[in-house]
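Schema walk-through. Below, the input block comes first and the output block second. Nothing else is stored per chain. Lengths vary across the set, and this one has 184 residues.
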Amino acid sequence: MSRRAPAGWPDEEIVRAAQGGDEIAITLLVEASHPHVQRFARSLCATPQDAEEAVQEALIALFRKIGTLRVAGALMSWLFQVVRHECMRRARLSLHTPATLDVARSTEELAFVRLEIERVIRCVSELPAEQREVLILRDLQGLSGAETASALGLERSAMKSRLHRAREAVRTQLRAPEETLRGA
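--- output ---
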């Protein structure tokens, strides 16, 4: 079954043309991907500045590596993975560098918030691919149920089932003690 790109994402024809080196298609691909990648980065990164940096890194990686992407349908997941890694990298850096503190929060509180963000990211990244995709599209990207189902080539009931399993798996992992998540 052929997957249709979610609303606003470039279709597979543009992705394939970009993979082939078509400069116009590459430009269209970067421009069409930008708002989605930006929304994801803003929901994941600790600061707006980190989000913008993560977006830039993802789009630069897209521009440089589009020709090596094997499956056009994997573009969205791959871009989100680049953003996720960059947000995590920046969060780790900020834990080790002095920063101007918000008066309302102590250093300890900020560290706990960052650790919890990393924990949520880790839980989502450990989901099976089909659950991770539906969770990202529906909860992080804010697509409607119908848009998510259509983007994944699923019936709405199947999408809802996957989304329920994904949310439940994340909840269960987050309730587990941190040692359990690390395998200790």
